[in-house]
Design brief:
Length: 320
């Protein structure tokens, strides 16, 4: 992402320092865990969306840095809590917080990160940005619970699927774009346009993640992970809605009762491929990408807009 780094590289470097400062604690255990988290953070895609949205909508300022920090704090908190909920021992190929310090400490660490984000906004009067991001946290929780509720029956249709991923996955990315735009413009209509843009990118991002389960593009992730976890992804939903009754019963039986049987999982993967489920999901992903880019192109051509297009294509075309 050469253009992204060229356009906001300086801001991202400064943000790294500000974010590290924002999570410091006088409690020795907490400070030690925060240093562990900082060392193993991801690529910071969401702060990139914050800064580029701000640069397109106006000028990056102190509120933009705080918005990026708030988004990153909330995102990190949700990952820590997710690892507890999922009993996951690894995060980005490293031990998770709960693996190293147990669940009770991990939950408290997630709470600490959430509180740091709240205080950062309140102490600086960033109430609108706090409102934008708080709505995302609410929607993420609702989306996760809806998915858990529906997973028991495997009765998720396409409308419910999009409701889940809009809330669970796309809401934080959409709030990153909305918060960044508002920090630079203080204009709610501009912020709303960027929220819609981020939502469409987030939905395309999740569909791409669904496709990884079927070994697309030689991405290296073992296929069938979502099937083993009984997650209803778009290719599978399409197949169930567009196949004959006998095949549908067979797939549902395997997902419910044989999801740890590698041969049976491969059978489901093959049926999804044959049904056109993968091609359908790819078509939907491309449609959301194009809708997002059309929204973005309502703004004048600029290096920031071009960098945002590069970032959008990077997160959707990624190989992992």
């Amino acid at each position: 992402m050469e253009l992204v780094n060229k356009v906001i590289g300086t801001e991202l470097s400064l943000f790294e320092k500000k974010f590290t400062e924002s999570v410091k604690s006088t409690n020795h255990l907490l400070d030690r865990i925060m240093r562990f988290i900082i060392k193993r953070k991801g690529k910071q895609m969401r702060p990139m969306f914050v800064f580029l949205s701000a640069k397109i909508a106006g000028e990056i300022n102190d509120a933009t840095y705080r918005a990026a920090a708030l988004i990153e704090l909330l995102h990190t908190a949700t990952l820590v809590h997710d690892d507890v909920v999922d009993n996951s021992m690894k995060r980005r190929n490293f031990f998770s917080i709960n693996a190293l310090w147990k669940n009770k400490i991990a939950v408290l660490v997630g709470d600490y990160l959430l509180s740091k984000g709240l205080l950062l906004s309140i102490d600086n009067g960033d109430y609108k940005i706090l409102q934008i991001t708080s709505r995302a946290v609410k929607e993420m929780s609702e989306g996760e619970l809806l998915q858990m509720e529906k997973a028991r029956k495997l009765d998720i249709d396409e409308n419910i699927y999009f409701e889940i991923i809009r809330a669970k996955t796309a809401s934080l990315l959409s709030s990153a774009c909305a918060a960044g735009a508002y920090s630079a413009s203080a204009d709610e209509s501009v912020s709303e346009r960027f929220r819609l843009f981020g939502e469409k990118v987030g939905i395309a991002f999740q569909i791409k993640d669904d496709l990884f389960d079927y070994g697309q593009d030689n991405i290296g992730k073992p296929t069938g992970i979502d099937i083993k976890e009984k997650k209803m992804t778009l290719p599978l939903i399409y197949t169930l809605q567009n196949t004959d009754a006998a095949t549908k019963r067979k797939i549902i039986y395997i997902v419910k009762n044989n999801s740890t049987d590698r041969a049976k999982v491969n059978e489901v993967i093959n049926l999804v491929q044959q049904s056109g489920g993968i091609a359908y999901a790819q078509k939907k992903m491309e449609a959301y990408r194009q809708e997002a880019l059309e929204l973005l192109r309502t703004y004048p051509d600029s290096s920031a807009r071009a960098a945002m297009e590069e970032l959008v294509n990077y997160v959707i075309d990624r190989k992992y």
